[in-house]
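During the reporting period the student researcher (J.K.) took over the structure-prediction task from the postdoctoral fellow and processed the backlog of single-chain submissions. One of the processed entries is reproduced below for the supervisory committee.
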Amino acid sequence: MDRINYNNRLFKSISNSDNGEVGSQTVFYYFHNLDVVTGTYSGGKIAFGQIMAKVLDDDSLDMRYQHVNTSGEIMTGKCLSTPEILPNGKIRLHEKWQWTSGDFSEGESIVEEI
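J.K. obtained the following structure tokens:
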């Protein structure tokens, strides 16, 4: 089985729970080295954000994230992103996340490669 290479891929949010801050204007840029994915994201309510993830055996991502929103707040969270390969070869990530700051609420989102 070929492993997913997330390096130099761009993703855009296509859906998110109401308690999330990422929206349709948020773009993610991923880097992949060995079993680690890092990245940055910004746009919409996000002034600047960073991700760090371990790539699991099934190519899902055990991720931590932090960002500064446009209100100037630092927000942090954890996320499990499960990949789906679309018919056009692009990656869609189904995400289950939880804030580790603020109200500690949970949510779900989908980001898709652009």
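The committee noted the following: The mean pLDDT is 96.
J.K. will present the remaining backlog at the next meeting.
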